[in-house]
Each structure stands twice: as C-alpha cells, then as structure tokens.
Amino acid sequence: MTETKDLIIITASCGKNLELSEKFLEKSNELNISSEILDLTTLDIPLFNPRIHSKENIPNEIEELKKKLFEIERWVICAPEYNGSIPPILSNFIAWLSISGDDFRNLFNGQPIAIATFSGGIGLELLTSLRIQLVHLGSQVLGRQLLSSYSKPIDTKTIEDIIQRLLQMKKLKT
C-alpha cells in the first residue's frame, strides 16, 4: 500500500511554474509534510470534447488521478498565465475531472487549495480566473496566493506561509 500524501502540488508548466512547484516541495519537505508534484505536462490526456467523450469513456489515467486526488487532503496549483487566463492543459485536466462522476463538483467540493503563479506578465488574471473556477466547483481557495515573475522573484517565506495556512484547513465533508 502506498503512503497517502498530505499535499499535492499540481503544476501546469514544465518551465518556471515547475520550478515554483519544486520550491513548494522543498519547503514542505523541510516542514516534514508528505508531498509530491503532479506535473500535468507529463500526462498524455486527450483534449476533452463533449461530442466524443462521455462519462462512459473516461481515460484510465484520469480515473487513477481522480482517486489519488480524493485521498490527498490539500492541493497547491502552480500555473502560468496564458492569454490572460488559465492555461489549456489545466483547463483540460479540470474538465476531465469534473465530468468523471455523477456530480461535477464532487472532487472539488470542500477541497482546500492554494494557488500560485510564476508569470512572464503580471499573472493576476490567471489567479483571478483560477480562483473563480475553483470556488465555482466548491473548493476552499486559500485567501493568500503567490504571484511571482521575472521582476518579482519567488519568496520562500511566502511559500512557507501558504503551506502553514493550508495545513490549518481541513477538507469539508459533503
């Protein structure tokens, strides 16, 4: 049986946001928090298309990841801003997760989530869009968020504070 993690860090980039995710992982390890990174760029998930896909033909990889995410108490999502919003790889992943089951909010309802970005631009549009989507799905999105860029370097004190705040949150029972 595998060890259940306390924290999963989901990254929607193989660049600066993967580096940001690794900083979250390093800090959580320093704090003795069992955590891991889920790098969406390493997955081979088809583009969700409602004309072709339904609840009856969900990829096995999505089913396995959904089970894993259900078991993990807290999440951090690190994503870049794409065209002023959520990157396609993350939107696609969320779409697949939300259709795999009878209740599209099931996985997200009451889930403590922190959001962070390293953006080539400002990054605020991504954080706002992602917060709106996650709240719509029923998640508890941590009030504090991390916004970093080339002109605003990653602050490890902020990462530690976000992790500490996230640890105080519990998944709400639905």
UniProtKB/TrEMBL annotation:
Protein name: Putative reductase
GO cellular component, one term: cytosol
NADPH-dependent FMN reductase-like domain: residues covered: 8-148
Biological source species: Prochlorococcus marinus str. SB
Domain of life: Bacteria
Gene Ontology MF annotations: FMN binding; oxidoreductase activity
Transmembrane regions: none
Pfam families: FMN_red (PF03358)
InterPro entries: Flavoprotein-like_sf, FMN_Rdtase-like_dom, NAD(P)H-dep_reductase
SUPFAM superfamilies in UniProt: Flavoproteins (SSF52218)
